[in-house]
What does this fold into?
Amino acid sequence: MADALSDRGQWKESWKTDAWEILMTSPAHGVFFTRASGHADLDCALHVMRAFDRLSSLTLGALVVFHDWELVTGYDSIVRQEFVRWAQEVPKPGDAHILVKSRILAMGVSVANVALGGRLKVFVDRPKFERARTETIAGRRRASIPG
It folds into this structure.
């Protein structure tokens, strides 16, 4: 990912291994979106955390996060532990919305949510997730228009 955002505050990056594929974007200023599939390992998780940290450093206020992880089939146990440790240290924590289908992932997100004080909003219904994402992006784009 380039450290410079476009004039509309957008960037796009992808990452792929044999086990995992992820697309990361910032569709509007202050919004971090990921779409992932496969099995998450620590290397992939660290890649997502570093991308978030870079975007956060270029953004005023907290980022609103949307993770479309409906096609994530599982994760290494260290991944949840590292995500929680990292999320507890994020200087500008915002809400994170996560779409899940896998029962294993849903259980892991629930455990992480307890440790993070309820900052994670879990979705199992794609239309509700998409509605929240679309409304947030539209609101952030309107807020970034001068005047």
